[in-house]
Design brief:
Chains A, D: Pfam families: BPD_transp_1. The complex is a heteropentamer, with 2 copies of chain A (256 residues), 2 copies of chain B (291 residues) and 1 copy of chain C (336 residues). With 256 residues, chain A is mostly helical. Chain A contains 10 helices and no strands. Chain C is α/β, with parallel strands linked by helices and 336 residues long. In chain C, the strands form 3 sheets. In chain C, strands 2-1-3-11-4 form a 5-stranded mixed beta sheet. Classes of the chains: A mainly alpha (256), B alpha/beta (291), C alpha/beta (336). One adenosine-5'-triphosphate sits between chains E (36-37, 42, 62-68, 103) and B (152, 155-161, 186).
């Protein structure tokens, strides 16, 4: 705990300085729009006023996010390994991947609503779509960048099938897969605000979206801060995991 | 000196039972021309036959194509001109069954020494329980004096240790063909001698065919049945086979090295190589191909 | 490039005043377009630039931040929400009243005969959109507990709502005028219109920052309103002119434009309609769209003087014309 | 040209099969909603009807996208190198990066409109924000994963400053930087639809957003297809560039 | 045999002008204890002084810590116990000025051989035009027989070529301290001899201090002024310095190798090492530390 504070003392200090400046500016600068720049105190009040709603929101959001993100993770990695290893399939379909991956997830909303049976599954699918591409493309990239040495080694040991995948391809491409997964995780949170634009009545994204529709930015900011805390916690856990999985790279030298 | 492990695959050499004096051909290299790119030719019409159970050593100046030919034999370098057959099957079609030690002894850095060896072991012993695999892997590592480092990752090993782990892995793979690219290059002289003896013992007892690259003349003569010298030339390297004329069986190492016959052969070998390098330096000036 | 510079070049060659009008892309800016087409702005010596927004909140933010001078089609609820949150906006005129359909699948259309028939149904609405407020307060007035007797599902945009009702995820959709044409194509039918629920309810209001009205007593905005009043008249006399005027800016088929600008349920009126605005404010308080606003008197944020002045000037200019006098009568009914 | 067809014959075939199925389904399946699933012919007609608008859109969008994306690329790489190399700074600010990166770009709209002088700069900033994070975080990741050998080498050669950055850090982390940049590029196109929600009167994103506001999906699909073609062209060019920059990795073996 | 290039830095060795017989201390290793992790101790209270211009060779069993000590001298391995001073400055504070050849000869794979060398050259010759740098780099590469491969990338070179490129880079760096970890390990005997001679010539003429790791006993004796033998032990390796008692200046290589004195010393050295390995194997059984 003490080491935590020691490591993050400057982090916390910067946060405090930022809040102080924010407080001063919103209080004394008249040219500041009070609607979109509420005072920190207002935000803190909003925070405590809405804490129940925020917490319920996390629970509902997780019900969408977890299936969506993990579904994307699994299919992204499996698909990425497949297309990374199969040159011909990759060559054939890569143009489609390039074409489909940047389509804004918002545009899928009518289709997921029309096709999928419930709002929940529609929302999950949106998260899935958004989270899928980074990890999928990251995995393909990672497989393509595997050092020739490792592949030669595997070939000469006659490694095939699951052993080849699990013991060689997966670890060797892990740096890129995990970097893609981390983008995917961020993406999932981002897509939440889109996926909760319809059919939801609570959620981390819903909260932000809802109050921003009402231009109640003190609530919006409270929501962003609350979400950020959760996202940072998830991300730090993910980074820890990443560091463990990539122990054989230089990352371990990062000393955390 | 070192007790050999039981071979994981029992019926490795059915023909060894016949005890026939007429050797079967293990590797057949036919008309191999090779180049990585259009500008430099690496290998020039290489012809080579390796008998089953033979211990073949490649020597030659640095950069002349020894590793390249070895990698081609291992089915790792695609080529179009000529053919290489192992057990009468073209390496282009069937991936050859062989244990390989690469020049850069590349282990998988995300696996411990033991897990690296287990990976090779598992290929022949699909059904063997993990515990037993681990045990055998440890025995192989002990064989190369790495018994204390089974749990170390490649990143935590010294150059020589990595090399020995790679040797253990190749041995444990249990193929009757071993392709080894300067495997003892980073070993101290004492360990090196021990591993040389180990290799001689294994290849003799189990009739494994070995193709071995080294720069150490003594090592080459001590190990080889036949030495193939690579000579770089304008159109890529050509090879020249020299049968080692010395009877080594049962001879004490030290005595052997003091043997006049041995020393004469050693001298002639060195002269041969020296000449080639001078030649190649001369050609280099003329046309840019080189050692 | 953004609408900004492109439209600037299209604007009148020179004017004493320059006004940048922000409008919602899907609602268009019918009266402004007509005024433009007919040269009313030119005659008033003002040059008007148009800036489109996909989202009312963004438009109102732009107004607050001084990027635009007038918000034309950002509804009533939007500006009122901003006012509730502390923005110093002034509603100076009107643009549209009524016109939003309540949609359902053709085969179910028969079920919805009265407000009672919404009980137990799943009703989709567009959050903070006028029709939503009108619908809820109509239920409230009819003594229906809309929080428990039916399930209201809020949507961010009208198009999402449309997909939801078409795919049966909600039973009815309290929609918006700009989606009517597509809804019909999708096999949906209007079972009621927002005007049916509340006669002449206000929709888009002309809103500006109060501080802008301090300059020259709001001369520019008075001129702007004069042009709008004339455009309103033009539209009544020649509905087709609205289509030709809008066609330059709205890139959809003429048929769609026509349903948006000339639907019989939509009433384009430039009158600020203060009483209806106040009514909506009260309704918003009632259904919880605005909270903690007891210290705000919404009347302070509706400026009817400018409109009155504009009307009077027009009467002076065209003394023989009864139209403007009639408008003054309507003004007095709706605002005082 | 012939080799192009030979390589992509299956790609094209799949596209054709897909269109045929689409045509059949939209024509004969009655349960299909004709508005959100228009017939391909309608889309093609819409395409030709709006081609002028689409082309103008590309030009306007590029004026936003190019400054936004390249700005993000440059600052992302420079910033990523800085934070990748400075452990203490990274430690201090990383929590903020994790917290800020997944904030939905839509939420920045009011702020960019309020703070920046013009709608153009506001839109550019949105694209900048969206494109910044992937390349920034990718660069940090790439720097952290540089092999120790290379760093030792650089250290023992006394490499410092620009030489160290340009000759060692940048190439060594290039695989991750480029993978991040490619996500950023996709992201830029995605953010376009958000960045053109205000103040724009033409643009690739505007087009799609505009017609989806009217639920005119035949135009929306025409827009998506048109954009996809452009994106695929840009992406393929980018992949070519990537392969050239990463010539020393295994990627070159991918044989294109 | 090979003409030395002009040194890029002219006033490299101001004290060489003095021609004093009293040597300055170049490297001072004091009470070095080292371990990578808590379980295994690597180095045990190492004490060592290297005189300016001295040619020091490290020998010892594989995995005993030679590379580790070399890396510590190069300022690449942080440590807490003890101190290492180079030119009287602690390597903990000042990054030492030295040319290094790593055991895995890691060149930058994204640069050609020439560009790799130019990178080192540029460090001392900031102002030199690029063309000239390229020219000098090419000369250095020619020195190690890589004149034909200047434009090759590491991925296109053989093991021995990479090693030679790394040597060229270290030489071109122009520091008066060279740390070389098994630099000739992957070279053919002929090239190896040429480069040995080159190194001897450079170190003598330019009074460069060299610390050199090798497993080749002949090479060690031929090159070294003093040989440091590493002996692994329970608490990490200890070292033992042995002055090479043979006068080599001007002696013909072949004659030297046949010299009885030479052969006796060689024998004793090998015995010493052999003993240590046997010892260490014995300790290993007792406590798990090992070679
Ligand atoms: N991937 C490659 N691309 C292009 N050229 C290559 C490649 N690999 C090796 N070469 C070239 O092929 C030639 C032979 O290389 P090879 O590795 O077979 O040499 P070698 O005989 O094993 O040398 P050494 O004794 O130094 O290991 C060298 O000249 C090298 O430059
Ligand atoms: N990064 C590391 N982490 C943990 N242990 C390490 C690490 N690097 C080396 N070691 C251990 O330190 C010991 C000494 O290694 P070092 O590389 O110095 O040996 P060496 O004498 O150079 O051997 P060789 O002759 O085989 O190159 C070895 O036992 C090795 O396992
Ligand atoms: Mg080789
Ligand atoms: Mg070493």
């Amino acid at each position: 705990m003490l080491t935590f504070f020691k490591r993050y003392n400057l982090t916390i200090l910067i946060g405090i300085i930022f809040i102080v400046i924010w407080a001063l500016v919103t209080k004394y600068a008249t040219w500041i729009n009070p609607v979109i720049f509420p005072q920190p105190l207002t935000v803190i009040e909003s925070f405590s006023a809405k804490i129940g709603e925020l917490v319920t929101g996390v629970v509902s959001s997780m019900k969408l996010l977890i299936p969506g993100f993990f579904g994307a993770l699994v299919t992204g990695i499996v698909g990425g390994l497949f297309f990374g290893l199969n040159k011909r399939s990759r060559e054939i379909l890569m143009p489609y991947f390039h074409a489909l991956s940047p389509i804004p997830p918002t545009l899928f909303i009518p289709y997921v609503i029309a096709i999928l049976p419930t709002f929940q599954t529609a929302s999950m699918s949106l998260i899935f779509i958004g989270a899928f591409w980074p990890v999928f493309l990251g995995t393909i990239h990672g497989v393509l960048l595997i050092e020739k040495h490792y592949l030669d080694n595997a070939k000469s040991l006659g490694l095939k099938g699951p052993t080849f995948l699990l013991k060689v391809v997966l670890p060797a491409s892990a740096p890129h897969i995990l970097s893609g997964a981390s983008t995917s995780l961020g993406m999932s949170f981002l897509i939440l605000t889109i996926a909760e634009m319809f059919g939801a009545s609570s959620g981390m994204g819903f909260f932000i979206q809802y109050y921003s529709d009402f231009s109640q930015y003190h609530y919006v900011l409270a929501g962003i801060i609350f979400n950020s805390i959760i996202i940072v916690a998830v991300m730090i856990a993910f980074e820890k995991l990443k560091k463990r999985l990539l122990f054989w790279t230089n990352l371990k030298a990062d000393g955390k | 000196m070192v007790q050999l492990l039981e071979r994981p695959v029992p019926q490795q050499n059915p023909i060894s039972a016949e005890d026939s004096t007429e050797y079967k051909t293990k590797i057949k290299v036919q008309h191999i021309d090779f180049s990585y790119d259009a500008t430099t030719k690496i290998l020039n019409n290489i012809q080579l036959e390796v008998k089953e159970g033979e211990f073949l050593v490649f020597m030659g100046p640095s950069g002349c194509g020894k590793s390249t030919l070895l990698r081609m034999m291992a089915g790792l370098e695609p080529f179009s001109n000529g053919n290489i057959e192992i057990n009468d099957k073209s390496v282009k079609e069937t991936h050859p069954d062989c244990g390989v030690v690469f020049q850069d002894y590349s282990l998988f850095p995300w696996l411990t020494a033991q897990a690296n060896v287990m990976l090779a072991l598992k290929q022949r012993n699909k059904k063997m329980p993990k515990k037993e695999l681990a045990h055998i892997a440890e025995q192989y590592l002990t064989l190369v004096h790495l018994g204390h480092a089974v749990k170390k990752y490649p990143g935590q090993m010294s150059g020589g240790m990595k090399q020995r782990a790679a040797i253990a892995r190749a041995l444990s793979y249990g193929s009757d063909l071993l392709l080894m690219d300067e495997p003892f290059g980073a070993l101290d002289p004492v360990t090196r001698i021990q591993l040389q003896d180990l290799l001689v013992q294994i290849s003799a007892e189990q009739k494994r065919t070995v193709v071995f690259v080294t720069h150490d003349v003594d090592e080459a003569i001590y190990l080889a049945d036949r030495i193939v010298i690579f000579a770089p030339g304008k159109n890529g390297a050509v090879t020249k086979s020299i049968q080692v004329p010395i009877e080594k069986k049962g001879t004490d190492r030290k005595k052997l090295f003091e043997n006049m016959e041995f020393r004469a052969f050693r001298e002639s070998l060195l002269n041969e190589m020296n000449e080639q390098i001078v030649n190649s330096l001369r050609t280099e000036i003329a046309d840019g191909a080189g050692i | 490039a953004c609408g900004n510079d492109e439209q600037t070049s299209k604007g009148e060659a020179s004017g004493d005043y320059e006004i940048t009008v922000g409008l919602s892309q899907s609602a268009g800016g019918t009266l402004v377009d007509i005024a433009h087409q007919e040269g009313y702005f030119e005659e008033e010596n003002i040059s008007v630039n148009r800036v489109g927004f996909a989202n009312s909140a963004d438009g109102l933010n732009a107004l607050q931040a001084g990027k635009i001078d007038v918000g034309l089609t950002f509804g009533t609820a939007g500006p009122l929400t901003f006012i509730a949150n502390g923005s110093d906006f002034s509603i100076i005129g009107g643009h549209l009243e009524g016109g939003h359909p309540i949609l359902t699948k053709k085969e179910n259309a028969g079920q919805y005969t009265s407000l009672e028939s919404y009980k137990g149904k799943k009703v989709g609405t567009i959050r903070i959109f006028t029709s939503d407020i009108v619908f809820r307060s109509a239920l409230e007035d009819a003594g229906i507990d809309w929080k428990n007797d039916l399930e209201i599902v809020e949507f961010k945009t009208g198009s999402m709502l449309l997909e939801a009702v078409a795919s049966g995820k909600v039973d009815v959709a309290v929609s918006a005028n700009s989606f009517y044409a597509q809804a019909v194509d999708m096999g949906l039918e209007a079972v009621a219109w927002s005007n049916d629920l509340q006669e002449g309810h206000v929709c888009c209001r002309v809103v500006t920052r109060s501080e802008l009205l301090a300059e020259e007593d709001g001369e520019a905005y008075k001129r702007f309103l004069k042009a709008l009043i004339r455009a309103e008249r033009k539209k009544i006399e020649d509905p087709q002119s609205a289509v030709t005027a809008a066609k330059e800016y709205m890139k959809v088929d003429e048929k769609v434009i026509n349903t948006i600008v000339n639907d019989s349920h939509s009433n384009y009126s430039s009158d600020p309609s203060r009483e209806k605005v106040v009514q909506m404010w009260e309704q918003m308080k009632e259904i919880g769209y605005v909270e903690n606003v007891d210290d705000i008197d919404v009347n302070d944020y509706v400026n009817i003087d400018l409109y009155e002045k504009a009307l009077n000037e027009l009467i002076e200019q065209y003394p023989d014309d009864v139209y403007y006098k009639d408008q003054l009568v309507r003004f007095n009914e709706q605002n005082i």
